[in-house]
Specification:
- The protein is of the alpha/beta class.
- It contains 16 helices and 13 strands.
- It folds into two domains: 169 residues, Rossmann fold (3-Layer(aba) Sandwich), CATH 3.40.50.2000; 154 residues, Glycogen Phosphorylase B (Rossmann fold), CATH 3.40.50.2000.
- The strands form two sheets. It has a seven-stranded parallel sheet with strand order 2-1-13-3-4-5-6, with helices on one face. Strands 9-8-7-10-11-12 form a six-stranded parallel sheet, sandwiched between helices.
- Helix 2 packs across helix 3.
């Protein structure tokens, strides 16, 4: 949107917020900190089952498209809103551009994997973040002319806001008493937090790690209720459980962390760019470049591997030196714009 704003005579933009993420700590703060304009419309869908949420987005997005009649709908990522908006657009004969296309975990138990596959096969333009995305799309028979390797728009945002994030450190250091080294944790995937046995293993690992080094754990809303029975145990072992953080605060904490323990796809990418060791509590990743060229290590179900990796970092046995992958240079949006400028018309953003 920032890149297109430089060409007001060529592009008319409409920003639609589906409301899939609606909590102020998970939605409005990102509009504020990322300097996004206020949405032209909020569909206020809210939470619900996958079927209900997807259906609600479709039902509420269709009249928007009938009213605005855009030439293109651009959808980012792999959430339910991505799939729902793409499907509505295609059925109305409106072209779709997918940002962050081609990523595959090859695990269809992940709802996001289904969203990625279907959205890619519906889309007219596919903007990929890493070479594996291009290869995945080719293997699935998608026309080569639709595929464009442009880089990572999330890294564009990180690079742009890095100076602001650095200014947050002094306040965060004082607020959370982070004089010593610490490990940053974030968990939200159902496979980790909804399975009581799995969650108990993760808690045991955090307790073990907390006896060696401080742990800072901003808790996602869906994780918070699952941790009620463990909260006292964790906090008695140097694990600080805190409320979700805004983008700038979390970025500042990533930059200074000894390592990050996560199940988030985006954080795998951010730590790779920042050169911070990342342990991913998943058996697979749709972002293989973070392992091949980056700082990411999959630990799957092996909780002992997490503890051992922390020991290696604390002892200095594991050193992380990395350079950003190709096209993770802050100019992905410009490459997207270069492709879009070969087309004419207005674009509705979900």
């Amino acid at each position: 949107m920032r890149a297109m704003a430089s060409y007001p005579q060529e592009f008319e933009q409409t920003l639609i917020h589906t409301g899939q993420h609606y909590d102020s700590g998970m939605s409005q703060i990102f509009f504020d900190e990322l300097d996004l304009p206020e949405p032209d419309m909020n569909l206020e869908v809210g939470s619900g089952s996958h079927a209900r949420q997807t259906a609600q987005v479709m039902e509420r997005f269709e009249p928007v498209l009938l009213d605005f009649k855009p030439d293109w709908v651009m959808v980012p990522g792999d959430v339910n809103s991505t799939l729902a908006c793409a499907l509505v657009a295609v059925k109305l004969g409106i072209r779709v551009a997918h940002v962050e296309a081609g990523l595959r975990s090859f695990d269809r138990a992940m709802p996001e994997e289904i969203n990625r596959i279907v959205t890619d096969h519906l889309s007219d333009l596919l903007f990929t973040t890493e070479p594996s995305g291009n290869e995945n799309l080719r293997c699935e028979g998608i026309d080569e002319h639709k595929i464009h390797f442009v880089g990572n728009v999330m890294i564009d945002t990180l690079i742009r806001l890095l100076p602001k994030a650095k200014l947050r450190w002094a306040h965060l250091n004082e607020r959370f008493e982070l004089e010593n080294q610490y490990i940053l944790v974030t968990l939200h995937r159902p496979s980790n937090v909804d399975n009581s046995e799995r969650l108990a293993e993760i808690v045991a690992a955090l307790v073990s790690i907390g006896q060696k080094v401080g742990v800072l754990f901003p808790v996602h809303p869906r994780t918070k209720e699952r941790l009620v029975d463990y909260r006292q145990l964790l906090e008695n072992n140097q694990v600080k459980i805190i409320e979700p953080l805004g983008y700038l605060d979390f970025l500042a904490l990533q930059m200074r962390a000894l390592m990050v323990l996560t199940d988030s796809g985006g954080i795998q990418e951010e730590t790779t760019y920042l050169g911070i060791p990342c342990l991913t509590l998943r058996a697979n990743t749709e972002r293989p470049i973070t392992i091949i060229e980056g700082t990411n290590t999959l630990v799957g179900d092996d909780i002992n591997k997490v503890v051992l990796a922390v020991d290696d970092i604390l002892s200095g046995r594991q050193k992380t030196v990395t350079k950003p992958p190709g096209f993770w240079d802050g100019h992905a949006a410009e490459r997207i714009l270069h492709v879009l400028r070969t087309y004419k018309g207005n674009i509705a953003f979900n």
